[in-house]
DNA sequence: TTGAAAGCGCTAACAA
DNA sequence: TTGTTAGCGCTTTCAA
């Protein structure tokens, strides 16, 4: 019987036909996939753990690109992609335990996420995209430090010394405010921490006191939050000549806020992003482009080929500084004894 | 043992602790989700069948919105969302058989899709979004005929009589060309067929001979295809005053082509879309808005509550005509004996 | 070539 | 309160 469905060549066509016809007549709906999975020890699906709020994830083209790439890799391999229900608030880890999958892709979660811990307890291969960075685990992501270094270099060479930073959340607890040095160095999001550290290194090297550089954090990753962060930043530090954002989405918000205040970009204010989403390209945002589709694809392929490896693999994807129309030298300060 | 994991209240905390600790010491990774699913007859996941090419699906905000809504509904219910690997070309239906899910959501597939047939053979509840429309099955979608009727009415009242149509694919076979009457009426995509029929009814009522209205079809759903379709349409029928597109994505392409030809919209050419995606709103496209997020959410909830029903349910979502800056009365033809 | 049976790992019902 | 066992539906091995 099983043979009729799975091994057509192992029995006579005539018998196969008869078996299948009888099965249909009896209302047999075909082999049960779950029972088959139990027996064959193959679920035929890859789990995706994503603890960002879905509404923000689906509105960020960079995240959608990763998702698309992963879905493409799964499609190529003929396996399903199982989105694990998990949101930042919910502590319900059961969904991770319940997921019938052959492996997990973890996309951009904090190092202390309980869902992540649950994934790591599962006896299946796991690939991490972006963060966290865990010793001995497969990971795919850009070289954040180098990428941000390019941005910093660009700004320093333009002459910017008074800069401000807008970053995504640094921990699971909300802090829509300025960030202390402690919070920066203790950030649970590896990507954000690395980017801030790289900025600190680069600007310190240029003679800027990093302790004096304001960093504003936003929990939610939306254009509006980018705008409100820019407002908070510029209200407190109007002398800032460049706003460095750790994502294009936040940078789009900063651009909107600049316009609202009547600041021309880049003449009055320089704004930079990170990711290289289509809309950023369209408006000419100075940013770092990373190949998000490739990131998802690579992670999927890495996971699906993980049987063939023993040593953990970390794949670093290339990034490219894209200088657009939103960065320029800072405006020369009018000397007071010259002006009116 | 099972109780220790699943029914903490059925045994003493002390015993539970001891059992769990011993389990950990022995390297027991927790209950196997597949075996559990087999036993409980619950997979804890919803399947999503989407036979559109992923690259196009993820680039269309209307599709992403549906996906997001569905994912949200699943998250609320604590069940996973299983993307079934299926692309338009691939005839490999096995993935549908292999998916360990408690039900399917089918999103916008042709009525003769083999994957769809495979889904319908599975003994699990199924909800269809948009198409196909199958008697006796749960379905969620807008009233396409009424929605397109509003567009047609709007154009007729503006005075348009010479119109052209750009539509998405009408069958699984590629036909990037003009559409014959037979192909129109025999279209395997219910949504497209309905929209064309509604246009035929409305324009016929306004005294326009529908047989004389050119309809151009595109297999791939991209902005570029919209542009090439507009080119084909306007090259052959330069007298057209309005281009009706069955999606915003196609309309964006038509807009680009109009600009390329030096046609001002709406003075020289009226362009309309369908869906109401954010970018359409941003550029002021005249279109019909449909609540895509709600569509996905509603479908998910409908599926997850399908145990409580017996009669099939068809849910029609509201649509709204949004008149933007891309529609205006046709340019008055300069009478030859007046002009130069 | 065809049929029979063991057992995948779990849960739920029942026995002690 | 705790321990035992049948059986979910399949695949695969082995016997006929």
Global geometry of chain A: elongated
- How far the N terminus sits from the C terminus of chain A, by CA atoms, comes to 95 Å
Low-confidence stretches of chain A: 335-340
Radius of gyration of chain A: 25 Å
Strand order of the largest sheet of chain A: 2-1-3-4-5-11
Greatest interface and its participating residue counts: A-B, 47 and 46 residues
What is the name of the CATH superfamily of the largest domain in chain A?
A: Response regulator
Instruction: List the secondary-structure elements of chain A in sequence, H or E.
Output: HHHEHHEHEHEEHEHHEHEHEHEHEE
Oligomer class? homodimer
Mean pLDDT of chain A: 94
CATH topology of the largest domain in chain A: Rossmann fold
The amount of helix of chain A comes to: 40-55%
Q: Look at the structure and give the CATH class of the largest domain in chain A.
A: Alpha Beta
Question: What structural class do the secondary elements of chain A suggest?
Answer: alpha/beta
Q: What is the domain tally of chain A?
A: 2
* Secondary structure: number of strands of chain A: 12
CATH architecture of the largest domain in chain A: 3-Layer(aba) Sandwich
Characterise this structure.
- The structure is a homodimer of 340-residue chains.
- Chain A has helices at residues 2-6, 13-25, 33-40, 54-59, 61-77, 94-98, 114-121, 144-158, 181-185, 190-205, 223-236, 248-260, 278-283, 292-304; strands spanning 45-49, 80-83, 104-107, 126-129, 138-142, 163-167, 215-217, 242-245, 270-272, 287-289, 314-317, 320-322.
- By secondary structure, chain A is an alpha/beta fold.
- Chain A folds into 2 domains: 42-142 and 294-317, Response regulator (Rossmann fold); 144-290, Response regulator (Rossmann fold), CATH 3.40.50.2300.
- A 6-stranded parallel beta sheet of chain A has the order 2-1-3-4-5-11, with helices on both faces. The first copy, chain A, has a 4-stranded parallel beta sheet with strand order 7-6-8-9, with helices on one face. The first copy, chain A, has a two-stranded antiparallel sheet with strand order 10-12.
- In chain A, strand 3 (104-107), helix 7 (114-121) and strand 4 form a beta-alpha-beta unit.
- The radius of gyration of chain A is 25 Å and the shape is elongated.
- Strand 2 of chain A pairs antiparallel with strand 2 (80-83) of chain B, so a sheet runs across the interface.
- The structure holds a DNA duplex (16 and 16 nucleotides).
